[in-house]
Amino acid sequence: MVLEKMDAVTVKNTAGSNFSVVAEPFPSPPVIERPLDKTVGQDLLFGKVWKWLQDDGEQVSSIGLYGMGGVGKTTLLTRINNELLKTRLEFDAVIWVTVSRPANVEKVQQVLFNKLEIGKDKWEDRSEDERAEEIFNVLKTKKFVLLLDDIWERLDLSKVGIPPLNHQDKLKMVFTTRSKQVCQKMESTKSIEVNCLPWEEAFALFQTKVGADTISSHPDIPKLAEMVAKECDGLPLALITTGRAMAGAKAPEEWEKKIEMLKNSPAKFPGTEEDLFRVLAISYDSLPDEAKKSCFLYCSLFPEDYEISQRNLIQLWIGEGFLDEYDNLQEARNQGEEVIKSLQLACLLENGRSRFYVKEKYLKMHDVIREMALWLARKNGKKKNKFVVKDGVESIRAQEVEKWKETQTISLWNTDIEELREPPYFPIMETFLTSCEYIESFPNRLFTNMPVIRVLDLSNNFELKVLPVEIGNLVTLQYLNLSATDIEYLPVEFKNLKRLRCLILNDMYFLVSLPSQIVSSLSSLQLFSMYSTLVRSNFTGDDERRLLEELEQLEHIDDIYIHLTSVSSIQTLLNSHKLQRSTRFLLLFSERMNLLQLSLYIETLHITNCVELQDVKINFEKEVVVYSKFPRHQCLNNLCDVRIDGCGKLLNLTWLICAPSLQFLSVKFCESMEKVIDDERSEVLEIEVDHLGVFSRLTSLTLVMLRKLRSIHERALSFPSLRYIHVYACPSLRKLPFDSNTGVSMKLEKIKGKQEWWDGLEWEDQTIMHNLTPYFQPIEHPRDSSH
Hints:
Shape: globular
Number of strands: 27
Number of helices: 24
CATH class of the domain at 43-193: Alpha Beta
CATH superfamily of the domain at 43-193: P-loop containing nucleotide triphosphate hydrolases
CATH topology of the domain at 43-193: Rossmann fold
Largest sheet: 16 strands, parallel
Structural class: alpha/beta
Helix content: 25-40%
CATH architecture of the domain at 43-193: 3-Layer(aba) Sandwich
Radius of gyration: 31 Å
């Protein structure tokens, strides 16, 4: 419907209008203009929202604008309000309400009372329900736009007196919130995220606040201005705050001083604390419990722009005790994932770069949000040394280290720690994280000066070769990570770590052995991770078997992540019901293994160079069942990541029909493989394929150097979650399992392979070829397949 202009006072009953009867006009102006500076970088977003407001055909009744604090949501809403005044669309009124916290029905009703000029006799001494009835009676015949700013929780519009959003298409609502979850709870027809500005627009906004006169006052200032603006990472509120602070600064030395302040003490930068951090901190204050707040602050321990492994982060939270209310690690991990979701919905945590080829998820924190979190962790800057985080500092002065006596948390990244050679006593320090490139050893005294240490993460200290025996003094330690170090021996004093719950020893290629009875002495151990260590170190099959036997003795062990290389150690694992229940991540490297039995509990399976492997079976508790005969109601529900590499006798992977949760599948250098799924070998496929959901969650499929591979699946599948396909050196693969009935996944992003392979594919339906061709990207070598 074409929207027509209306008089500001009288609503005309025109042809084409939706109204045959119009109630008394509003005495006050239909739209009240709101103050608004010139906007930068919101044109596309504004255009999309404006189209939704105009287009009745899409039946868009409510629009949710969500995003982190200071990103420009209120600015966008103000622009919508003022544009409604300019265009005079056929709305009887535009009503603006700043809701804030808590979502108070009475407050919203009062705004409507003032706008609608309801008689006092119908308002004073009336109940909330009676006032709602009066508001409803006035609004039910009107066509209006409701603009709600700063919603933090669901607002019950019916209690206010707002007619239903679908009430004869008379109401349009646009609201802003920092939480995507609020959009869901408000049942918005459309939700759109307001993001930070790209660099060009961010710098343009910054320059407008600094002023052209200042920018052009010295030839060095434009470059210095770029350096300041980049510290804001595209966040409009930060750009405005810092830009205003630099207005009139015409000496390069002043800019250089402020840049140093932004890098080292951003809270001291003019306006940052009051105008920026306190505004952003409202999101933190709105988190529902202390556990979520602690988890959020913890993310600031990592360097700027650092991508945090979700699994590692949750393991650290478990070590810190943030998730202690749960009885086992699986429940704690699940809750950790829920915490991450809630932080993301609150726009306090972001997804890291997508890695289609790995199950591992990565997270990151916006630079300004991170600085705000550090400010909060340091008690609004009043206890600077409570939370010490250093990144890329060439040297730390002895005087500064001396101030760390009262610190609870130290996080050092790429920082020279020479001054820790004579460390002070840390009576209350609970967390010590360090990742420094050139550390070869730590001073003995360091580990005697931490009487209450709970979390010690020394991972990625690539030159670290020696661990002092004094580590055995850390009797309060609950989390220890030594991954990606050059440590050769673990001291026998490890036995003293009776409270240790998480021990992570991944990628320790120089580790010679584990002293006997060390692992079995860790009586509180719940998580043990040691993958990619055994295969490259000097561990023997006997060492592996002994390690597994010690793990089996542990009463509380819940999660095992391990890499095995010998048939005897694999058999030890398969013979133990307890070990099978606990193994979440299994990497196999064995040239002699010819049969593999899978546990129902396995989540990640990597098989490398098992050249004799011919068959796979599934172990249901104590009963081993060949996959082609396994019960229909049972399957590998937990398995989501499978990598097969160099298994020359493996003919197919038909057992994958038992893995409905599979997300990542990579098969390489399996020279005998002819089919991924073989219908002829599966007795359940024809009946149960829809029930089992073959490949229904698969997001990434990689097939490399499979010379005999003829088929992925003989029937077409829907692949509803598939995002990435990579095929290289599979000359016999002439068909892909798509047809016109199954269609193409809406999530598909890339298909990579050699051009001649793509050109030689056979298609039963040319429509599918045309639909898939836009996603194809030719490559000449497997290394070109980086995602």
